[in-house]
Write a structure and sequence with these properties.
Blueprint: H1 7-17, H2 26-38, H3 40-58, H4 66-75, H5 91-99, H6 106-125, H7 144-153
Helix pairs in contact: 1-3, 2-3
C-alpha cells in the first residue's frame, strides 16, 4: 500500500529506525521510498542518518564481563514463590489479614490498646461526673404533655415511668 507521508514523518522514521529501508516499518516503507525519490530534503535527512549509522557501527562493542552478567542475573525479577500446600490458614488469621492487609497487625493493635488505656487513665483522674436529676436543666412547656416531652428529651429521672410507656 503506497500512501503519501510528510517530510516530518519521514524524518521521524529515519530517526527511529536508521538509514536502512529494511528496518523501516513495512506499511510505510513504500511511501518513504517514494518521497525519497522526489524530495531533496528527504535525501539530505537520509544522508545525515547514514553518517550517524556509520559512526555508531564504528563504535567498539565489548562483551559484558562475567561480573556484570552475574549482577544483572541477580537483579532480574523472579516469579513469586509458590504457595505452600501445607497447613491451611486459620479463620482468625484470614480475618486479621482482611481487616489489616498491610503486614503485621501488632502496630495498629498496640496503638488501639494505648488509646484505650489513655482514655481510661484520663477518665479516672478527671472531675467529670455523670449528671443527676438535680443538675438537669429545667424547662417548661405550655401543657403537661409539653413538659413530659421536654423531661423525656432531657432525660429527667424524676418523672414517673408510667407516662413513658
Amino acid at each position: 500500500m503506497n500512501r503519501e507521508i510528510s517530510l516530518e514523518r519521514f524524518a521521524a522514521i529515519v530517526d527511529a529506525y536508521g538509514a536502512s529501508p529494511m528496518r523501516w516499518p513495512a506499511d510505510e516503507r513504500g511511501a518513504a521510498e517514494a518521497l525519497l525519490a522526489v524530495s531533496a530534503d528527504a535525501r539530505a535527512l537520509l544522508d545525515e542518518a547514514r553518517m550517524l549509522d556509520g559512526v555508531l557501527a564504528a563504535a567498539p562493542v565489548e562483551a559484558p564481563s562475567d561480573a556484570l552478567v552475574a549482577r544483572l542475573m541477580a537483579a532480574r525479577p523472579r516469579p513469586a514463590a509458590p504457595v505452600r500446600a501445607g497447613k491451611p490458614r486459620s479463620i482468625f488469621r484470614e480475618l486479621i489479614s482482611a481487616i489489616w492487609p498491610n503486614g503485621s497487625p501488632a502496630i495498629p493493635a498496640g496503638a488501639l490498646a494505648a488509646s484505650i488505656m489513655l482514655g481510661i487513665a484520663l477518665g479516672s483522674v478527671s472531675e467529670i461526673a455523670v449528671l443527676n436529676g438535680s443538675q438537669i436543666a429545667a424547662a417548661s412547656g405550655e401543657s403537661e404533655a409539653d413538659e413530659r416531652l421536654i423531661a423525656l428529651a432531657l432525660a429527667d429521672i424524676d418523672w414517673p415511668e408510667e407516662w413513658i410507656q
